[in-house]
Design a protein that fits this description.
This protein is an alpha/beta fold. It folds into two domains: 147 residues, NAD(P)-binding Rossmann-like Domain (Rossmann fold); 125 residues, Rna Polymerase Sigma Factor, Chain: A, CATH 1.10.1740. The chain is 46% helix and 15% strand. It contains 17 helices and eleven strands. It has a seven-stranded parallel sheet with strand order 4-3-2-1-5-6-7, sandwiched between helices. Strands 9-8-10-11 form a four-stranded mixed sheet, covered by helices on one side. β1, α1 and β2 form a beta-alpha-beta unit. α7 packs parallel to α12 and α15 packs antiparallel against α16. The longest helix is centred in the C-terminal third of the chain and has 24 residues. The chain is globular and about 55 Å long. The model has no long low-confidence stretch (mean pLDDT 94).
C-alpha cells in the first residue's frame, strides 16, 4: 500500500485524485494541504483518515484548529503557512506526494518533496516553470523523480517509456484551443471573463481555463516539457487538436511517431501517476476504437500570441520563466476582475517580459526576488493601462 500526501486537495486535481483513491484499496492518505478551505479539507481528512492537514492561510488554520473537534478529529494535527505545506510535502512516512497547488506558492513544497526524496506526482505547472532550474538537478540524478499529472506531459512520459531518449526528434504537445478558438481577433476584443470559462472539453479550475483560452497554458507546458524531458525548445511543438483525444505525441528519428490516446478525463493521468510503474483498472472507460475524425491544426499566433512568450522566456532562461508565470497569475486575476480586456492579457505579459533582466534561478531566494519584481512591475503596467 502506498502512503500519500496531497497538496491542493480542495482544488480540481486534488478532488479528482481523492475520487481515484476512494475507489482503490492501494493507497492510504496521510497528509492533506489546501489554501484556505478549512471546512472541505477537514471533511476530506475525516473521510480518508488523514493524520495531518496544512492550510496556507493562517487564519483558516486557526479556524480549523478550533472546529476539528466538532467533526471528531481532535487528534488531527493542523499546520499553517508555507512551512506547513512543506511539512506535508516531506512527511517521512509518505511514499508519494501529489502536488496540485496552483501558482508560485507550490514551488517551495515541490522542492521540499524532492529534497526528502519523495516520489512526486506533479500537476502544478507554475511551480515547475518557476523552479525549473532547481528541479532539473533532481531529475538529472533520478529521471523518474517526477511523474507528470498534466495530461499532455503524462502522454509524453508514457511515449518515452522503453525508448532511447537519443532517438527522440520532437515532442508534440496537443491543445484543445480553449473556449475561444473560433473567434476572430475583433471578436476577441469583446470577450467577457465568463466567455473564457466555457471550455468545450475539460473541467478545470478557473485560472487554467482562462489560460487555455489565451493558449498561455501551452506557454507553461512548453517550458514544463523543456525541464521534465530535457528537450531543447526548438524541438517542442504545439498543435491544435479540438477533439482532445490525442493528449500528446513524440516523433522519432526513424520517421515513426508515438501518441497517447484516451478519453479527456483527468482521473486517468492522475491514476497513472499514483500507480506508476503499474497500471491498475481505474475509473475511466477505455476509448472507443472507432474514433471518427481527428483534426490537427497549426496554432494561430496572430489571434493567440501568448504561446510565443513561453519560447521567448525559456530561451532567455534564468528567472525569466518565473517572472512570466508570476505576471500571468496577476494578469488573470485582473482580467477576471474586469480590469483588463482579453487582448490586453498578452500586451501586459509581453511588456513585463521585455523589461525582465533574468538572473540565475538556482535558489529559492533568487526566485522570490524575481517573483516580487514581477508582481510589482505587472501591477504598475496594469494600473497604467486602467488610467488610459
Amino acid at each position: 500500500m502506498k502512503t500519500i500526501s496531497i497538496l491542493g486537495s480542495t482544488g480540481s486535481v486534488g478532488t479528482q485524485a481523492l475520487d481515484v483513491i476512494k475507489n482503490s484499496c492501494d493507497f492510504k492518505v496521510l497528509g492533506l494541504a489546501a489554501h484556505s478551505n478549512w471546512k472541505q479539507v477537514l471533511c476530506q481528512a475525516k473521510t480518508f483518515g488523514a493524520r495531518v492537514v496544512a492550510l496556507f492561510d493562517e487564519k483558516a488554520a486557526d479556524v480549523a484548529e478550533r472546529e476539528k473537534g466538532s467533526l471528531g478529529l481532535k487528534d488531527l494535527e493542523i499546520l499553517s503557512g508555507s512551512k506547513g505545506l512543506c511539512d506535508v510535502a516531506s512527511m517521512p512516512e509518505c511514499d508519494l506526494a501529489l502536488h496540485a497547488i496552483p501558482g508560485f506558492d507550490g514551488a517551495k513544497p515541490l522542492i521540499s518533496s524532492l529534497e526528502s526524496k519523495k516520489q512526486v506526482a506533479l500537476s502544478g505547472k507554475e511551480a515547475l516553470v518557476s523552479a525549473g532550474e532547481i528541479v532539473k538537478t533532481f531529475l538529472e540524478s533520478d529521471p523518474n523523480a517526477i511523474i507528470p499529472v498534466d495530461s499532455e506531459h503524462s502522454a509524453v512520459f508514457q511515449c518515452f517509456l522503453g525508448e532511447n531518449k537519443r532517438s527522440v526528434e520532437n515532442i508534440i504537445l496537443t491543445a484543445s484551443g480553449g473556449a475561444l478558438r473560433d473567434l476572430s481577433r475583433e471578436e476577441l476584443r469583446k470577450v467577457k471573463p465568463s466567455d473564457t470559462l466555457r471550455h468545450p472539453t475539460w473541467q478545470m479550475g478557473t485560472k487554467v481555463t482562462v489560460d487555455s483560452a489565451t493558449l498561455f497554458n501551452k506557454t507553461l507546458e512548453v517550458m514544463e516539457a523543456h525541464y521534465l524531458f530535457d528537450m531543447p525548445y526548438d524541438r517542442i511543438k504545439v498543435v491544435i487538436h479540438r477533439e482532445s483525444i490525442v493528449h500528446s505525441m513524440v516523433s522519432f528519428r526513424d520517421g515513426s511517431t508515438k501518441a497517447q490516446l484516451a478519453n479527456p478525463d483527468m482521473r486517468l493521468p492522475i491514476a497513472f501517476a499514483l500507480n506508476f510503474p503499474e497500471r491498475k483498472r481505474g475509473v475511466v472507460e477505455t476509448i472507443n476504437p472507432v474514433l471518427g475524425t481527428l483534426t490537427f491544426e497549426e496554432p494561430d499566433l496572430e489571434r493567440f500570441p501568448c504561446l510565443n512568450l513561453g519560447y521567448e522566456a525559456g530561451r532567455m532562461g534564468g528567472t525569466a520563466p518565473c517572472v512570466l508565470s508570476i505576471a500571468d497569475e496577476i494578469v488573470v486575476r485582473s482580467f477576471l476582475a474586469g480590469e483588463l480586456s482579453f487582448t490586453e492579457i498578452y500586451d501586459v505579459l509581453e511588456s513585463v517580459l521585455s523589461q525582465c533582466e533574468p538572473h540565475k534561478a538556482d535558489s529559492l531566494e533568487s526566485l522570490e526576488y524575481a517573483a516580487q519584481w514581477a508582481e510589482s512591475e505587472t501591477r504598475k503596467i496594469i494600473d497604467a493601462s486602467m488610467r488610459r
